[in-house]
Each structure stands twice: as C-alpha cells, then as structure tokens.
Amino acid sequence: MKAKPGHRDAVVSILLRGVDGLRQVGCELYVVSVSDSDDVTIWVSEVWHSKDAHDASLRLPETKAAIAEAMPMLTGEFTGHELTVLGGLGV
C-alpha cells in the first residue's frame, strides 16, 4: 500500500497497534515492512489459518476502527495477492 507523503509512520503505527490479538483470531504470521527506496510504500505480509479467519478479523470492531483511521492517510493504491501456503519455515 502507499501512504500519502508524511503519513507512512503513522499508518505503520496503526497497523502494528493490534498485533497482540491477531493470533487469537487465526493469524499465523503478520509482518509490516517499509520500502528502503521510498518513503510511502508499506508492505504487509500475512498468513492466516483460513480465509474465513481472515474475513472474520476484518469484521472485528477494532479492525474496522483501525482501517477507518488509516484510510485518510493512504493514497488508495493497493496491490495484493492471495496464495495457498504449502510449507516452509516459520509457518
């Protein structure tokens, strides 16, 4: 995702604020990263127990509030890919 100039750190803070409860709702991996080549790009990598668990997390009041808080600071430019994890280290 892309943050509006000057807002990347605030968006990252919002994204990281709720990580403690993610495992309880089915999140296996949640990593927030920033680009080293620009000051607006944010990467979020997630692995969920199931698509249903992820979908349910988006309906949580705290998730909805975080999205509402972050959206005005984002450009609206998002890319994403849904994959099926077959194995590896850390999952």
Sum up the structure in keywords:
2 strands, two-stranded antiparallel sheet, alpha+beta, 91 residues, 3 helices
3D architecture notes:
The protein is an alpha+beta fold. It has 3 helices and 2 strands; from the N terminus they run αββαα. The chain has a two-stranded antiparallel ribbon. Strand 1 and strand 2 form a beta hairpin. It is globular. The model has no long low-confidence stretch (mean pLDDT 93).
What's the gist of this structure?
This protein has 91 residues and is an alpha+beta fold. The protein is built from three helices and two strands; from the N terminus they run H-E-E-H-H.
Strand order of the largest sheet: 1-2
What is the first-to-last residue Cα distance?
24 Å
Q: What is the mean predicted local confidence, pLDDT?
A: 93
Put simply, the count of helices is: 3
Would you identify the regions where 5 or more consecutive residues have pLDDT less than 50?
none
**What is the 3D form?**
globular
SSE arrangement, N to C:
HEEHH
The helix-and-strand class reads alpha+beta
What is the radius of gyration? 14 Å
Helix content: 25-40%
Number of strand elements: 2
Query: Strand share of the residues?
Result: 15-25%
The main sheet comes to:
2 strands, antiparallel
